[in-house]
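Below is how a single chain appears once it has passed through the pipeline. First comes the sequence as given, then the structure the pipeline wrote out for it. We keep one example in the README because the format questions we get most often are answered faster by looking than by reading.
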Amino acid sequence: MSRSPLAVLANAVSSENAPALPGSAADYKTEILSGLTVALALVPEAVAFAFVAGVNPLVGLYAAFLVGLITALIGGRPGMISGATGALAVVMVSLVAEHGVEYLFATVVLMGILQVLAGIFRLGKFMRLVPHPVMLGFVNGLAIVIGLSQLEQFHDPQTGGFLSGGRLVLMLALVALTMFIIWIMPRLTRAIPAPLAAIGIVAALVIGFGLPVPRVGDLAQISGGLPEFSIPMVPLNLETFGIILPYALILAAIGLIESLLTLNLVSEITGKRGGASQECVAQGIANVVTGFFGGMGGCAMIGQSMINVSSGGRTRLAAASAAIFLLCFILFAAPVIEQIPLAALVGVMFMVVIGTFAWNSFRVMRRVPRVDAIVIVLVTVITVLTDLATAVVAGVIVSALAYAWQNATRIGARTFRTEDGAKVYQIQGPLFFGSADGFSELFQVENDPDHVIVDFEHSRVADQSALAAIETMAERYTNAGKRLVLRHLSPDCHALLRRAGQLVVESDDDPNYGLAVDYDVRLGALGGGH
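Resulting structure:
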């Protein structure tokens, strides 16, 4: 039984969905250390995305803390990490440039309200319409985007240009060392997450020997206080609503698409299902709160989610720990965190890219239908060049059109005569907008007998185009002085035609019609099909 919209909201914050906790002391240690690893990786990402959006770095860090903590506690997939993301930042930049940061905060609040409504009305279930080739393209495109975003860390803080000479070689060597430690560490011990060990070892080398490579502090100063409650300072009128609504709609769509696709990916890896509607509500509540506390909003982060999962994080404790550690960095440990070399964090993210990219898609594309291979490449390219929402919508549209075309070509009919001389057209394949013309071409009105039966035992009547095609054929037979009837309508097809007023039914209620009942077609029910 489906729950009411309010029940969905209540379920998201009820005690039944309290944070899932580890079972043993060792599990607690793994979850907390995984959260620490994620928090370290969140710092440069949040700062970089704040720069992309044109806001203060603390606006990005506050968003990473608030969105991360709230979704960790009430989200639909324990272990999934949320925070400020580049996919949202690139949309925000024009709003901030034209109207200022206060309009951004108001937009984030409205974005969150829209996401809560999406969860209440269970719109997350439509993610099941996303085909697997689109998922592969999404994963590959996002992996490439994460990899390309790390190139920004190779800039010289003094000149603004790319590193060169010995500093570039040293940076690359430290990145390679980080990646090697992450690769070899699980073969030696699993007492500490490999990414955390790599960050610690490389940071110790850089700080101990005073190596001249960019550090977190070169991006921005991350020290600050607790986020403070503040109502966005914007005029409360229709003009303001008209400004922020388009941005809020785009941000809500991108945020939910990225979050729900990440939820599906993490669910596949962990072998546990996630709650799509609950995740929508959690993302919405998180963004509403973030907008009132000076954050830039956010959504699920596939890179940090992969770090968490690969480090052993499986429960809500890991994600909540990441958010709390991040806040501690801002309040107390900024001088220490600012000394961490960017090379270590870049190496962690490059390993995330390698682990996230669906390398088997190259093999899959040689075996699946050509259209599916095209969709994988299309979604990957569009994700890199534009944004995730556009890529997913484009992939779904192409897949849907391909599916419609394939089914449109499957319409056919087997014909035979009954003992009383009637001709039966036994339709094969679905009747819908794509196959309506093919359906019409099956009939030979001039050569058919006076009584024609259209048998839908192996077919389905799907839409208005199908209804119009049936009415058109019935009219052609009527004009030729012949009778066309329908037989073997399934319950859903019967309901569709009766609701359209096309069936001529002997009984007014016709509650239990037989499968072999013949129904006449009422002409003009759809206005002549025009």
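Residues 85 and 302 are 10 Å apart (CA to CA).

See the next section for the split statistics.
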